[in-house]
Design a protein that fits this description.
This protein is mostly helical and about 300 residues long. Helices cover about 70% and strands about 0% of the residues. It folds into 2 domains: about 120 residues, Orthogonal Bundle (TerB-like); about 160 residues, no CATH class. The protein is globular and about 55 Å long. α1 runs parallel beside α5.
Amino acid sequence: MNESDREPIVTIALLAALADGQARPEEKARLEESLARLGVTSLDGVAAQVAAGKVTITDVASRLSGDDARRLAYETAVVVCNTDGPANEAETRFLAELRAALGLGAGAVSGVEQQARLAAGAPVLPTDVHTGAPPSVAGLDEFIQQQAIIAGALELLPEGLANLAILPLQLRMVYQIGQRHGQQLDANQIRDLAGTLGIGAAAQVLEGAVRKLFGGLTKGLLGGMIGGVAGVAAGAAVTFGTTYALGHVAKQYYAQGRSLSADDLRSLFARFQEEAKALFPRVQSQVQAQARSLNLQSLLGSLR
């Protein structure tokens, strides 16, 4: 794989993010922001070409340099399609078409598909009422910071599947914060709060997966070793900041009985993101230590 593979792989990841045809304008805006951070600024152009039938999976696949790049492109698409739960019918059709265009046999990629489905099956809310009491109000700040550290550590893991654990971890954190404040929440309410703050599942996963690919040399999304620590570490900082800000916004929102407006929520989110930027250098070593000790399969199991 080489630098010329960057654009087609990012394009395939974008096609995967849009494969279900359900992306709202806000989600497309978040995808555009994520791609801009990756050095890609042509989302509107690509989307328009796709709508006009000028970009096909076959055309994009033909631009990849070799077998490694084709497999990495497919693994990236699988991860993106399983972002917000297991791939739906439209996404499954897209993956089958992509697999054929890339010349990959079903047997050769069944492992990555199965692992992605299992990872994507993590419920947003705990299904076991005995999962433990939520943190005390006094302990919420420490709890939020620890969840942000774990989320940041997931960005440092070489497995692309690690990115699928970030959103369930963030939403579970919000649920526990609301629970401590006596709020009875369902999954849709929590997702709506995240959406109001501009936290998009597809955008987060696409950005993390692509950053891991091009942060340095890689042997594969599902277990390879990645170099280019600076690029991946930047992703850890972004995810730490997003999780930290989401947690503190949720804390204030539920403490005030969900009375804050959408503008108030977004203003708070921006403020806490700035706070997280200042904090990250002081906790970066903890994020790195967490990544060294974090067992992805165990974490995914606990989320399920």
